[in-house]
Amino acid sequence: xxxxxxxxxxxxxxxxxxxxxxxxxxxxxxxxxxxxxxxxxxxxxxxxxxxxxxxxxxxxxxxxxxxxxxxxxxxxxxxxxxxxxxxxxxxxxxxxxxxxxxxxxxxxxxxxxxxxxxxxxxxxxxxxxxxxxxxxxxxxxxxxxxxxxxxxxxxxxxxxxxxxxxxxxxxxxxxxxxxxxxxxxxxxxxxxxxxxxxxxxxxxxxxxxxxxxxxxxxxxx
Length: 221
Known about the structure:
It contains 11 helices and no strands. It has 221 residues and is mostly helical. InterPro entries: DNA-bd_HTH_TetR-type_CS, Homeodomain-like_sf, HTH-type_TetR-like_transc_reg, HTH_TetR, MftR_C.
């Protein structure tokens, strides 16, 4: 006679998930601090795990390698952007919807929503680290291309288009991603920028988007 199974206690399941999330966030935060202090190449997985007082084996339960933990914050921001974009009002045109979604992402980061470094300034510091580390930059650009495909698919669904036939969704997704990256680079390179200011970052993104129309269709003379 089979022994009846007992359903897991939802409260205990929730507690385990919160504990796992705290461990994951602690690993991301420790990796971020060590990367910024010692450099990506000189930081080891053992050092990251030691900072959180867990084993190397525990680290690999959450991340496949250093690259994955370094990109974890941006990966979560990218996933959040897709969700925000899907939820934008149907009456917005594609560019308006994407601008609104990226604004929501940065506001969420500034409120500390997401894993790892829990503030806008920390996320911006991480972006600067990625830009200055060839290995991470190459991985980030690969992820960005994958993100463009997903953004194009969402735009096509919103507008009732076939992205295999209509070039506009993929083209706009690529242009949008480039504008956002240029905004980040401009912020990082400007010594007079409002450092560690999320308002300054958002204002710079909006300024870049305001110039997109004139750059594409306006006279440059």
